[in-house]
Design brief:
Blueprint: H1 6-33, H2 61-88, H3 95-121, H4 126-156, H5 168-171, H6 183-199, E1 211-216, E2 219-224, H7 227-254, H8 259-286, H9 291-315, H10 317-320
Antiparallel strand pairs: 1-2
Helix pairs in contact: 1-7, 2-3, 2-9, 3-4, 4-7, 4-8, 6-7, 6-8, 7-8, 8-9
């Protein structure tokens, strides 16, 4: 597995940061000028508003403790675990592990912004919420790229010209040894537009206006999902994913030099906003009238996400975290 120099990784992260900055600027300008990207929110759709401003939506004692355990137990746990993954992978140079490290860095930074927003601003800071969303999108994208790089380089050997592809038993004849179409390439050519169809799902979802306050063990907690957040999740994320999927498909079809690497990179870039936008769409649809459960399940899902990374690194530590990366296996002879 050939290490990728630091400069391309830094350039890629700077590019992601620049794109997210441009998206933030565009969203702010659209909201300031009222360009009609989202319907006008009714007066109730403001943080902390209720039908009666002096009233609080009742919450059971069990649900209050669930909020407390999630905020002060679940969130700190996955923040520590994600930071631990970054530390463990800090000096690794393998492309899949470097991508995973950057994914955890983006994820950790986004969740820190979320924590500061809730602790310092009671969830009302649009800038910190955008930083939270951007961190999750970029984090998911880098982790998706890490998974694809890992499966390709360590298990399937689809890209390596001198290694036997794991799918040879299924294809019978391989493009590496004969003038035959590649089964994996054809499967990828189907998977990319199929993912683009799924990316259309959030675009068909309506905006939901729910905002209320509840008392959690003596403290007032405001629950709301602003128009700007929904514009990012339900409109911007799927459109960006569609553009990435289109570029990925075109790269695989028409790029002559190293099309697989570029196609995987663009596909992973689309999976980040697709995964985040679809998750938020599902949670908002299921719990549009009870945002406490939407926030709670998002936190627990993020814990499972980080735990999944930790478990994989723990189970396969001898292959993934060996002192020296395993040497590439010798080229397999072509099948008879």
């Amino acid at each position: 597995m050939t290490p990728i120099p630091r400069k391309p990784w830094l350039a890629l992260n700077l590019l992601a940061l620049a794109l997210l900055g441009l998206i933030a600027l565009g969203g702010w300008m659209a909201s300031e000028r009222g360009l009609g990207f989202t319907p006008q929110a009714p007066p109730i759709a403001t943080p902390g508003a209720t039908d009666n401003p002096a009233a609080l939506r009742p919450m059971t004692l069990l649900n209050q403790w669930i909020v407390v355990v999630t905020a002060f137990g679940v969130k700190p746990l996955y923040l520590l675990l994600s930071l631990g993954v970054v530390i463990v992978l800090w000096r690794r140079t393998e492309p899949d592990l470097v991508a995973l490290r950057w994914g955890m860095i983006w994820f950790w930074a986004g969740e820190q912004a979320c924590a500061v927003n809730w602790l310092g601003y009671r969830g009302t800071s649009a800038g910190l919420e955008y930083a939270h969303q951007s961190g999750m999108v970029a984090g998911f994208a880098f982790v998706a790229w890490a998974v694809m790089e890992d499966l390709d380089a360590r298990l399937v050997h689809f890209s390596a010209a001198n290694e036997r592809c794991a799918a040879l038993a299924l294809c019978r004849r391989c493009i590496k040894y004969a003038d035959e179409p590649c089964g994996f390439r054809n499967l990828f050519l189907f998977s990319v537009p199929a993912s683009a169809v799924i990316a259309l799902l959030p675009l068909t979802a309506d905006f939901r206006w729910t905002s209320y306050s509840s008392e959690v063990l003596g403290s007032t907690v405001c629950y709301s999902h602003t128009a700007l957040s929904q514009w990012f999740e339900l409109r911007l994320c799927p459109v960006f994913a569609l553009l990435c999927f289109a570029a990925s498909w075109l790269a695989l079809m028409f790029k002559r030099d190293d099309p697989v690497r570029w196609s995987k990179l663009l596909f992973a870039a689309g999976l980040g906003p697709l995964g985040f936008g679809t998750l938020r769409t599902a949670l908002l649809g299921m719990f549009s009238d009870d945002l406490m459960w939407s926030d709670t399940w998002e936190e627990w899902t993020e814990l499972l996400f980080v735990l999944g990374v930790v478990v994989v690194l723990r189970i396969f530590r001898h292959g993934l975290l060996a002192s020296q990366p395993p040497a590439s296996s010798a080229a397999a002879p072509p099948p008879a």
